[in-house]
Specification:
This protein is 54% helix and 0% strand. By secondary structure, the chain is mostly helical.
Amino acid sequence: MNIRRTQQTPAKFKGGFSEVKDFLKHYEKLCDYHNVSTDEEKCESITQYMSRHVTEFVEGLLSFRLNSWSKLKADILKYYDADLDTKHYRRKDLLSYKIPMLTAWKKYVRGFICIGGWLEQAKKLTSEEYASYFWEGIYKKLRIKIETRLMAKEPERDLSEAFPVDRVVAIAEKLLHRDWFDADLLISEVETESETDSSSEENSEVNTDSESSESETEFFRKKKKAQPPKDKKEGNTD
């Protein structure tokens, strides 16, 4: 489906949590209007109405590559934090006015998928390496808590293999859920460790969209972004 931009086409989606639900509703109505019914057409056409950074993220999603519209729609709603649009303020929001930890986590995942998804699709990264890099990018305090839960469910697991990304994401989101009674405790533990480690680590960031987050750099390990491997020039020795 290649449609000229008119009043009927949705505004370009740039990643805002307050816009994602309306964007998807508008897009689905547009598909119905033009008799676009297959998952493949819906998945392939949606990036026409997204910014470059959002498109790079979406193209890195497995659901996009498998042409599964229902899963792709769910991924877009999840990773662009659609539930923030329905949340209400709490007292702690006045005491600590900054981007919530769950939002920082989802931004980390989006940034990783942009890079890792491209490398995996280009056959420059195996599925096992993809999962390993994802695991190493998580801040140590949260990684320990995730590992504890994973091993409790599967105590005989072979630790020579990386934990599956989808299971890591599911547990992390439960640990960081905004309404959990102990979410504040986990946040304070992570911030305490961050204060001791951040002075010796280099600053880095993944530009996935126009949003920026100081809490993201506080929460996640500051490490160099994965880049596509460079071809060595002949005769060049280090």
